[in-house]
């Protein structure tokens, strides 16, 4: 089987386990899936509709949608299948390079039911990164008087992948004077060390060229290499010594860029070249190397860019002080970042009603809100409240979700619309805020119209009454004109429009008296002599049409 086929098989098994776990968690209102990283946009994550026992029609009728916690939407809901799919390609190393287990969270909102289901998706690592050294050209300066068995720490390779796909082993090649030893660090990391296996003689060889290779556990394995140049030095009597084996410093996250956080010091009693000390970073993460800078001459550690407590609250640096003869000493610098209140609470309306019936019972849900604060600890505690004097109250629904419900029955005749203000402010941190330092807060307004059920019913009754009056008026008009048409067969009538057309075909004058039961109909002799004989006007109105038998 090819390497691509084996990787695809592992992805299929990971997706199968994710679906099985999701079926078990759906019963508790929480879904869990897993998906390998670097999957293309639109890749299947889980069957949300099946796991929640929903119908496809409910996706549109009930306003079902996916909401992510952050600003980036990593997942979406397929409208035709009800599947949870990836909204974009996900890079695990970019999102979770500081954590071992990468989990992304989102919520499934069923607006029609005011329900919230939490979804957790674990991003499975794949071997898409090779181990690499920060510097591919390394230099070691070793005295020819160094005893065999002496160890020299080497720079570690970095691999953003996790688990078996991360860094697994080191190899050394190039010279019989040296060998390689690998020590396990406190966190389980591997630390390579260069071991002097045979005594050096500067007169025989002033330089030694070595190759250090790092490999991961992927299939196939990925490797990274670094070249080591060993310079053999004359005798150096003293090694540099740090003033402290471990330095600790606490800084707030708003410390200005360019500030000097701490200055380390190492001394060497030797003179000239052997007494000159240079400082360097021997073990540091990629993120820390982008944030801190060590001055090789003075030992000052300065800040390169702004700190963010939410991104990282602790950094560990391993320093080395080396003299001109190759002797060195190591020390650690532990930097702790303290949180400050630099984020205001965020309020978002997940679902809300635009109007509500005045006969809605007490406890009816009118809005579903999500409140969060990106700060940690006391600075991240949020207290929510509604303004006084409105017939609504706030209920906590699910973690950071709140529901706005009616506290009593509504009366549209008294108030037809409410502007509901939600205030979110820091909890304990707001009470303990220093004078002149405002506590973070945020407000959100909801406009709710009260629909009057009684007004709708009254409008319906008025409409029926208007129709009845119109019908009664039409009957009265027909009865008034019936005297002039008495004795005419029914077959001669062709409706209102037909009578109008008939009358328009002759010149006529119609005058109605104030009494609706009396009327006069006149025809001019020139226009109707061929059809109807001219007769003098009688006391009573004449018939419009004669009987067929008389004709």
From TrEMBL:
Gene Ontology MF, one: calcium ion binding
Signal peptide as annotated in the record: 1-29
GO annotation, cellular component aspect: plasma membrane
SUPFAM superfamilies for this protein: Cadherin-like
Bilayer topology term: Single-pass membrane protein
Compartment annotation: Membrane
PROSITE patterns recorded: CADHERIN_1 (PS00232), CADHERIN_2 (PS50268)
Transmembrane segments: 445-467
Transmembrane as UniProt keyword: yes
Ribonucleoprotein listed as a keyword: no
Domain Cadherin: 74-133, 134-242, 243-347, 355-424
Stated role: Potential calcium-dependent cell-adhesion protein. May be involved in the establishment and maintenance of specific neuronal connections in the brain.
Protein name (record): PCDG7 protein
Species of the source: Malurus elegans (Red-winged fairywren)
């Amino acid at each position: 089987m090819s390497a691509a086929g084996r990787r695809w098989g592992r992805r299929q098994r990971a997706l199968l386990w994710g679906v099985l776990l999701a079926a078990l968690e759906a019963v508790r209102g929480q879904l869990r899936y897993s998906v390998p990283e670097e999957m293309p946009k639109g890749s299947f994550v889980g069957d949300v509709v099946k796991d929640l026992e929903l119908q496809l029609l409910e996706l549109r009728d009930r306003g079902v949608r996916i909401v992510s916690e952050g600003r980036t939407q990593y997942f979406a809901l397929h409208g035709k299948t009800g599947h949870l799919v990836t909204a974009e390609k996900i890079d695990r190393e970019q999102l979770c390079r500081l954590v071992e287990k990468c989990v992304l969270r989102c919520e499934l909102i069923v607006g029609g039911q005011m329900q919230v289901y939490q979804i957790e998706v674990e991003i499975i690592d794949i071997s898409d990164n090779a181990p690499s050294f920060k510097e591919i050209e390394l230099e070691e300066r070793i005295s020819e008087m160094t005893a065999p068995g002496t160890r020299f720490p080497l720079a570690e390779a970095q691999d953003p992948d996790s688990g078996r796909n991360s860094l697994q082993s080191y190899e050394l090649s190039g010279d019989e004077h040296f060998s390689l030893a690998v020590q396990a660090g406190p966190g389980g990391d591997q630390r390579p060390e260069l071991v002097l296996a045979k005594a050096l003689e500067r007169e025989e060889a002033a330089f030694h060229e070595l190759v250090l290779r790092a490999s991961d556990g992927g299939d196939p394995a990925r490797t990274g290499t670094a070249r080591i140049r060993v310079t053999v030095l004359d005798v150096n009597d003293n090694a540099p010594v740090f003033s402290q084996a471990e330095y600790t410093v606490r800084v707030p996250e708003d410390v200005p860029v360019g500030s000097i956080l701490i200055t380390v010091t190492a001394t060497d009693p030797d003179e000239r070249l052997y007494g000159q000390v240079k400082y360097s970073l021997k073990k540091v993460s990629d993120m820390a190397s982008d944030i801190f800078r060590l001055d090789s001459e003075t030992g000052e550690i300065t800040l390169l860019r702004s700190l963010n407590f939410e991104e990282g609250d602790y950094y560990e640096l391993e320093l080395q002080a080396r003299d001109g003869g190759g002797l060195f000493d190591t020390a650690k610098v532990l930097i702790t970042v303290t949180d400050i209140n630099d984020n205001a609470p965020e309020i978002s309306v997940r679902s809300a009603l635009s109007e509500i019936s005045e006969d809605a019972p007490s406890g009816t849900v009118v809005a579903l809100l999500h409140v969060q604060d990106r700060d940690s600890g006391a600075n991240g505690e949020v207290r929510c409240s509604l303004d006084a004097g409105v017939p609504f109250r706030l209920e906590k629904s699910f973690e950071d979700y709140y529901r706005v419900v009616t506290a009593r029955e509504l009366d549209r005749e008294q108030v037809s619309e409410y502007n509901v203000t939600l205030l979110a402010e820091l909890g304990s941190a707001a009470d303990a805020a220093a004078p002149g330092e405002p506590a973070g807060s945020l407000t959100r307004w909801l406009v709710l119209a009260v629909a009057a059920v009684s007004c709708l019913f009254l409008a319906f009754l008025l409409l029926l009454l208007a129709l009845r009056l119109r019908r009664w008026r039409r009957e009265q008009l027909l009865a008034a004109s019936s005297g002039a048409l008495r004795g005419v067969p029914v077959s001669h009538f062709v409706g209102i429009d037909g009578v109008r057309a008939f009358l328009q075909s002759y010149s006529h004058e119609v005058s109605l008296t104030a009494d609706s039961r009396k009327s006069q109909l006149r025809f001019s002799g020139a226009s109707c002599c061929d059809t109807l004989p001219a007769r003098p006007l009688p006391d009573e109105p004449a018939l419009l049409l004669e009987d067929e038998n008389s004709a």
